[in-house]
């Protein structure tokens, strides 16, 4: 359901959140511990920096750390950086105008709403 990039981003952030002591973590440590390809992780981390979710610190003791509390980083904020979830918000049958009359709509709607709630109300510290 989620893109591999989004999954890797959440893995990296959850690793950083679990080791939230103010000290930066080097990307190779995150990559090794979370089994993420190093080059791929580098691109993910830089995107998270640009979004203000994490900070990058240079130098001998540099690395990456969360820019804010993991309790304030919602899954949607992360997922939206790496994938477009519009297809999950649309009609199950892909119709442009959905009147909700098909049987699939009534089964799909609770799933769609559950996904929206998961993304909107779950934070990185809960992973």
Give descriptors for this structure:
Arc Repressor Mutant, subunit A; two-stranded antiparallel ribbon; 53% helix; 127 residues; mainly alpha
Structural write-up:
It contains 6 helices and 2 strands, in the order H-H-H-E-E-H-H-H. By secondary structure, the protein is mainly α. It has a single domain, classed as Orthogonal Bundle (Arc Repressor Mutant, subunit A), CATH 1.10.10. Strands 1-2 form a two-stranded antiparallel ribbon. The model has no long low-confidence stretch (mean pLDDT 91).
SSE topology:
Layout: H1 4-18, H2 27-34, H3 38-50, E1 54-57, E2 63-66, H4 75-82, H5 86-89, H6 103-121
Antiparallel strand pairs: 1-2
Poorly predicted segments: none
> Can you tell me the CATH architecture?
Orthogonal Bundle
In terms of structural class, how would the helical and strand content be classed? Answer: mainly alpha
Q: Which descriptor suits the 3D outline?
A: elongated
Describe, in short, the structure shown.
With 127 residues, the chain is mainly alpha-helical. 53% of the residues lie in helices and 6% in strands.
